[in-house]
Amino acid sequence: MSRILVLLLLLTLGSFNSVKAQQVKQKDSLMIRSIYDMALLQGKSYEWLEYLSNEIGGRLSGSLEAERAVKYTEAELKALGLDKVWLQPVMVPKWTRGTKEYAYIETAPGISTTTNICALGGSVPTPAIGLKAEVIEVQGLDDLERYGREAIEGKIVFYNRPMQADLINTFEAYGGCVDQRYAGAMEAAKYGAVGIVVRSMNLRQDDYPHTGSMSYGDTPANQRIPACAISTNGADYLSSALKIKPDLKFYFKQNCKTYDDVQSYNVIGEITGSTYPDKYMVVGGHLDSWDLGDGSHDDGAGCVQSMEVLRLFKKLNYQPKHSIRVVLFMNEENGLRGGNKYAEEAKLKNEQHVFALESDAGGFTPRGFSFDMDQANMEQVASWKPLFKPYLIHYFEMGGSGADIGPLKEKGMVLAGLRPDSQRYFDHHHAENDTFDAVNKRELELGGAAMASLIYLFDTYGTKTEMTPVKN
Amino acid sequence: MSRILVLLLLLTLGSFNSVKAQQVKQKDSLMIRSIYDMALLQGKSYEWLEYLSNEIGGRLSGSLEAERAVKYTEAELKALGLDKVWLQPVMVPKWTRGTKEYAYIETAPGISTTTNICALGGSVPTPAIGLKAEVIEVQGLDDLERYGREAIEGKIVFYNRPMQADLINTFEAYGGCVDQRYAGAMEAAKYGAVGIVVRSMNLRQDDYPHTGSMSYGDTPANQRIPACAISTNGADYLSSALKIKPDLKFYFKQNCKTYDDVQSYNVIGEITGSTYPDKYMVVGGHLDSWDLGDGSHDDGAGCVQSMEVLRLFKKLNYQPKHSIRVVLFMNEENGLRGGNKYAEEAKLKNEQHVFALESDAGGFTPRGFSFDMDQANMEQVASWKPLFKPYLIHYFEMGGSGADIGPLKEKGMVLAGLRPDSQRYFDHHHAENDTFDAVNKRELELGGAAMASLIYLFDTYGTKTEMTPVKN
């Protein structure tokens, strides 16, 4: 064959391939458009969230609300006509807040100002008459050693390092100070502190205290000290009062209690794959929440968006090649028992999970996804960027995925996390104002549509590490 | 010289240039980081907005509030130590709402349901006793011809085409139905309608009616019919009531009035350029607002962000090469007199404007900018994308800029508009709930920082069409 003929043949093949690539791309583009149309015009996630938030409310692990949420979401998944819906039993911790906490700042005997606090999740209570002591303000755990036992013993340690406002990603700012909340009590106890108060992890100045998980590590039970969060306005007030009156006293009373573990469940629904029924793709959020608000953003949003992904596939008559599971994990907030349990059983049953996506960063306008996967998969995702551009989904970066799907991680697997706009998330996180009215219907729906689109693409083309050719 | 020597020389020069380019880029990157740090840690825009919103309130052209806003922002700009601050006189229309509107749907004599309405801006009042008539529901202006005079005469035309929820950019959805509000009354009058009710331009279901500008065109004064907006919930209620009871009656009473034009002002501040004092770059928003809310998003946000750009430059000791002007335009909402006046005077004085940026799409998380300019400038902007990536500013597309800067447009000029996330904008637009609490401090500040960064880059490198080499 002459070289010219070979060249012509190659050109023809090339253009044939490019036409085929074009058609595939057009098919994907149309499917994604259908997903968005269905989500925005006939979405169900907002209605589900309204029920979870307003009819059920805060769903702390082990609470009646958490169990009602299990029953409700199980029934709703069943109504979707999935191939399977079941509950996966998991034992969870049970901690209750009890009656509302009470606190004041006493600048002189009889002269005091009440301030808003809440117990940190897992804290021990104060004595029934409350706890009153002088306060030492610190900027973090490192300060304890610097001040030493002499300065700390018998006092309440006030951790007041704020979230860094100059960080664009507010989760980074959260990560930069949450050690105060998580380890503040166990560390302060080592220096003889009698209690701790932590500045709320909130970038906004307001009056809401924000709870969240904490740990006593291996501190013996009789040496555990009560821990509470104070609102950002309260923290600023306390700090400025301490400058004027360093020997002021802080009083707080909290009535929380830890019980024995109780039975709970992950809620799971599945559309069984047509080509690879034994390969699993998971989409999920966590069904439990803190108790102060109604857990609309954290993480009611992630749950209903995940349910919506499967509903959209059913409504659009999309039959996935892989088995797609929605998993509503129990107990992310104070134990991660649900996430651990799901991964444990998957391993026991030798279920091959190739992909998992979690939405646990609020129901705000989605900006994209962060991924925990290898470079080959990242390149495949990068090739999909043009498909997402019309929907203003632009963020595709390596990074974390989600706490509940983390335990599933295996070499070669794709883990992903939805990344919504993060600016307002910590205004509501773990606080009384994490409520339904703070969620915008369209923003929530756009998140579910972005998730369904990503899963559609991974289902269609497979992950790069499945090692099995996926037919188109 | 041998070819190898030439090659080596070229490579050396190339790497020298690339080192230089690297240094320039690093300088820009550091400057932008400083802009963001200053905006997020020591920003002033939120404080200004608090005053405009809560101390002054809605700033309808010709109102006392608008004049107070002129005086306040003039004083605040003076306090920044700019090179010049002045007021540019402009005559503006004066329309007042009068006492609150009242409306009900009467399904049978004596059986009625009140519903929330507001007069459209510029509407004539109803008779003092109100107006009651049967209703004909239409989906848009085109329907008028289809139904014809026989069906319309003596009735109130109810325009009920909703914003399209499947459009990702909500401004596009707005553009797709605002003709009903703007031209609905003048068109319906041609068919003998006695009044119009327009579904609010709002993607959310709620009870707020949204006002906005309308025109009677050249309809003679005695043929002008009153026009109001009804909330989205009200519109749905009215529509379903009409299905059951097509001869129901709608009653409304509104007390608005148009006065003679009154004196007002654009507020202008300038940092005079060091290298090109006679070339102007404008950044602005509009100081007037509708009267129902306090105009926090529309467009208090754009005003304080624009003021913040100049404040950031002063605080960072950045001496711009071009003269940078902040212009707070008066009367964007119902006349555009301020924008027209500024452009007119610029032309009279032969001031060369090379760049203008408007922020008038709400104080939400900025996503990027849309541009009205030539391809050479677009390529320059594209080369800056990496500088914006750390701040999650990703949208750089051709498109509109801003209503107030539109009249400045000249060949070769760069016009730009800040493009914040648009999902919640129309929840608040022109309604009672466009209030300060709906603005998040960080989101507002991120917008101002993005604007300052873009202006810094255009000031440093010049627009591609200035035709004058800009020194570095």
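qc> Chain B touches chain A at residues 36-37, 40-41, 165-166, 168, 170, 203-204, 365, 367, 390-392, 394-395, 421, 423-424, 427, 440-443, 446 (CB under 8 Å).
qc> done
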